[in-house]
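ok new one. same drill as before - structure tokens go in, u give me an amino acid for every spot. 121 of them this time. try not to just spam alanines like last time pls lmao
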């Protein structure tokens, strides 16, 4: 299995796990993610998507990996909405991301900054 396929699988699995634990009534507000990629030929992205992809170092990844990363980032926000925002919970969340991404703390910070800035500490 290639690294990209393994990364996508891990991202989707972690995102699904985070989404399952999140309460639906506390979902993060919509940011206008439009699918596609910041890479040429992949379709439109919102400003929040561009910000997240650049800050999390996913801006040069293939479209499907970027889509999975964006989904995981939104799941991270939903998890913080449900679990509560604290430094401890942000650390727990980053550690949950460790198996899916190379830089889990950077990824978590980028997700919060782009998609749920109300969780900025």
């Amino acid at each position: 299995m290639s690294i990209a396929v393994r990364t996508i699988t891990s991202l989707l699995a972690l995102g699904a796990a985070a989404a399952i634990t999140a309460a639906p009534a506390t979902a993060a507000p919509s940011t206008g993610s439009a699918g596609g990629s910041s890479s040429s030929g992949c379709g439109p992205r919102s400003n929040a998507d561009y910000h997240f992809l650049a800050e999390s170092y996913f801006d040069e990844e293939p479209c499907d990996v970027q889509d999975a990363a964006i989904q995981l980032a939104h799941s991270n926000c939903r998890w913080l909405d449900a679990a509560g925002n604290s430094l401890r919970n942000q650390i727990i969340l980053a550690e949950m991301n460790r198996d899916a991404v190379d830089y889990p703390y950077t990824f978590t910070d980028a997700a919060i900054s782009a998609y749920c800035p109300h969780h900025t500490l």
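The mean pLDDT is 78. and btw Helices lie at 3-21, 47-55, 63-83, 87-97, 104-115.
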